[in-house]
Amino acid sequence: MAKAAWKRPGSPIGRKGPRKASPAYKRRARQPWTPADVSKLKQLAKGNTPTGVMSIKLQRPVAAIRSKAQREGISLRPVNRSPYNRRTKTAKRR
Asked: What are the start and end residues of every segment in region (Disordered) (predicted)?
């Protein structure tokens, strides 16, 4: 009979401590946002930075960045994309 998942040697279930040996960023979960962090978030959002890159630069989870941006009224939507993926008028001409 097979062992339960949490009893297997390589299983992360029930394991204490960090899940990764060397995480890409130090998690700052549940730490308050400083005004410098909020200004950096605004600057990165204005530069159309993806949320994954923002999470590494701000050392916070992606969900925390999205929720803080929503609370502050910061749009994370890229501003340089055309709506509905329209082609330019010059591309349609033959």
From this structure: 1-33, 72-94
Please tell me the pTM assigned to this model: 0.58
Per residue in 7-61, pLDDT tens?
666 655 655 555 555 555 556 667 899 999 999 999 999 988 889 899 989 989 8
Position 1 pLDDT exceeds 80? no
d(CA 45, CA 73): 11
Run of H or E including 56: helix 51-58
Q: Report d(CA 53, CA 45) in Å as an integer.
A: 11
Domain boundaries, the chain: 23-78
* Rounded CA separation 62/78 (Å): 16
List C-alpha distances in Å: 2 to 6, 7, 8: 12, 10, 9
Residue 37, phi then psi, degrees to nearest 5 = -65, -40
